[in-house]
């Protein structure tokens, strides 16, 4: 597939692009800074709607000129570009950039007739991650039906983006899938970051004790590219196990004693349910911190 990928210069985007290339997709990275990846790139301000639709409707690389058949259409758009969290700049600017860029990207894609759009939403939509103090889930494991009532500008922007995606899907009929991505972990971060998580599980409370390996995130994007006909969907994206070494029963006893349990859970099962992604798009995460730390 010919894929228009925004935000490929970021942490998650680099891994996703490499994985998509390994699967044979032709990827254009669209970002404000170069990625250093071996792929075609355009430097674009995604908050400018003219630049977005211009980038999406022009040649991406010199080899496309040789075909002599005009500008080829993209088969899919993957939108990862965003201010990645609160407390980088002002709250208002985080909200503005994230919502404006997403509107521009999805609007351009649907107007150009691109049939598949995948965008990065977030675990933060559930209101736990960036809460002032402690906010507990309404129930565990947390699935896509859990209420999304965030208190911070980043998560607010992601909830707005989900509404934007749903609205454009209703108008256009395109497949538009939102990925509620959990804490992205690169392979080398298992050795550097996870010993502290294992020593003090409370440090993972804001991430609902979950994580997503960057390689498995790339796999999830590819699963979505290969699955047609689902209309508008949101998916939790996490690995199968928790990011702590204590059992699910211990996590519940220490951190969720009064939180209802929706169904029986395996001893090391993630509290950030990924069942829907497995069922609908064939998501099958392969990695775990246990490969490195035992």
Describe the overall structure:
This protein is α/β, with parallel strands linked by helices and 294 residues long. The protein has one domain: 3-Layer(aba) Sandwich (Rossmann fold). The protein contains 9 helices and 9 strands. The model has no long low-confidence stretch (mean pLDDT 97).
Helix content: 25-40%
In CATH, the architecture is 3-Layer(aba) Sandwich
Radius of gyration: 19 Å
For the record, the count of structural domains works out to: 1
- pLDDT averaged residue by residue: 97
Strand order of the largest sheet: 3-2-1-4-5-6-9
Strand content: 5-15%
Give the class-level CATH name. Alpha Beta
Helix-strand string: EHEEHEHEHEEHEHEHHH
The coarse silhouette is: globular
What kind of sheet is the major sheet?
7 strands, parallel
User: Structural class, please?
Assistant: alpha/beta
CATH superfamily annotation: NAD(P)-binding Rossmann-like Domain
Q: Which spans have pLDDT < 50 for at least 5 consecutive residues? A: none
**What's the number of extended β-strand segments?**
9
Organism: Yoonia rhodophyticola
Protein name: NAD-dependent epimerase/dehydratase family protein
Domain NAD-dependent epimerase/dehydratase: 5-200
Pfam families: Epimerase
């Amino acid at each position: 597939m010919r894929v228009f990928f925004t935000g490929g210069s970021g942490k998650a985007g680099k891994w996703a692009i490499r994985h998509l290339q390994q699967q044979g997709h032709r990827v254009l990275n669209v970002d404000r800074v170069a990625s250093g990846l071996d792929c075609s790139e355009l430097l674009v301000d995604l908050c400018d709607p003219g630049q977005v639709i211009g980038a999406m409707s022009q040649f991406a690389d010199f080899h496309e000129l040789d075909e002599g058949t005009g500008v080829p259409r993209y088969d899919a758009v993957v939108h990862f570009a965003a201010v990645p969290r609160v407390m980088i700049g002002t709250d208002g600017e985080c909200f503005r950039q994230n919502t404006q860029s997403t509107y521009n990207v999805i609007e351009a894609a649907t107007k150009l007739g691109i049939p598949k759009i995948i965008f990065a939403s977030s675990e933060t939509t559930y209101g736990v991650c960036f809460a002032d103090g402690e906010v507990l889930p309404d129930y565990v494991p947390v699935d896509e039906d859990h209420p999304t009532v965030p208190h911070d500008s980043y998560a607010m922007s992601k909830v707005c983006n989900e509404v934007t995606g749903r609205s454009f899907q209703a108008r256009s009929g395109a497949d538009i899938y939102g990925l509620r991505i959990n804490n992205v972990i690169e392979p080398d971060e298992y050795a550097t970051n996870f010993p502290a998580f294992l020593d003090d599980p409370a440090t993972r409370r804001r991430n609902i004790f979950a994580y997503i390996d960057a390689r498995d995130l790339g796999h999830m994007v590819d699963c979505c590219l290969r699955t047609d006909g689902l209309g508008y969907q949101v998916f939790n994206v996490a690995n199968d196990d928790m990011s702590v070494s204590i059992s699910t029963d211990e996590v519940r006893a220490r951190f969720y004693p009064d939180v209802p349990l929706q169904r029986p859970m395996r001893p090391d099962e993630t509290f950030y349910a990924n069942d829907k992604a497995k069922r609908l798009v064939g998501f099958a995460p392969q990695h775990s911190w246990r490969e490195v730390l035992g």
